[in-house]
Amino acid sequence: SIGSGTIIDSDGTILTCAHVVVDFQGLSSSSKGRVDVTLQDGRTFEGTVVNADLHSDIAIVRIKSKTPLPTAKLGSSTKLRPGDWVVAMGCPLSLQNTITAGIVSCVDRKSSDLGLGGMRREYLQTDCAINAGNSGGPLVNVDGEVVGVNIMKVLAADGLSFAVPIDSVSKIIEHFKKNGRVVRPWLGLKMLDLNDMIVAQLKEKDGTFPSVNKGVLVPMVTPGSPADRAGFHPGDVVVEFEGRPVGSIKEIIEIMNDKVGKPLKAVVKRANDNSVTLTVVPEEANPDM
């Protein structure tokens, strides 16, 4: 397969897509596979797949160059807003050094919105033209900073392209450096972000619903999961996690980071504003979940 990549370190570290460099059929994500790498100046190298995470579709490839290589500057995806101009770079259909322009359509498109299974992911949605060969290439802002990694498009539609936000990619790279893989804690909770309007609607339906301004609702608890063992119940509203107020699933995920097997304290509100402190010990998520 043909894909694109970005040199992020002068030692020859290249950021790309896992599906470009790893055979999903048989090759394990820890495999040190070999890939052919062609630089913009025409030089060719044999690259080694150092790390690959199939769930996020992010991989790191390394090449050995006798001279330091030019590197791309990483920006911040959290600063992006819908309507911001972005440029997708890559080699669609083997046409090297192709750029296409567009705008950010959505900054937090959920994987579930796209019908993708597995654990929750968020993507940048753009209307840049993306084709086979663009995968793994950078999404760049008007300051020339990498803000995402282009990974897919909707085949049956125009102007629906998706990239992994660079802030998520940076965390994945940290995991690679620390653990050699991405460690994802699993609680066994289905969660839903609350806002004033949703809370008002829920209180209308059930007068005993807790009076909260923000929090994360638990509609379902997986039987036998860490959350089930900790005493979570459907209908709980998580208002505090590890001593920090929380108002979104994203915040809970950030606090958990890679804390597997470590007790974490959660404060939940229940019917009639009863407050309960629970201790949950996350397990490592099955990558196939």
TrEMBL record:
Its EC number is 3.4.21.108. The keyword Hydrolase applies. Gene3D superfamilies: 2.30.42.10, 2.40.10.120. It holds the Pfam family PDZ_2. GO terms for molecular function: serine-type endopeptidase activity. Residues 172-246 form the PDZ domain. SUPFAM superfamilies: PDZ domain-like, Trypsin-like serine proteases. GO terms for biological process: proteolysis. Belongs to the peptidase S1C family. This is Putative protease Do-like 14. It is an enzyme of class 3 (hydrolase). Keywords: Hydrolase, Protease. InterPro entries: PDZ, PDZ_sf, Peptidase_S1_PA, Peptidase_S1C. The keyword Protease applies. It comes from the Eukaryota.
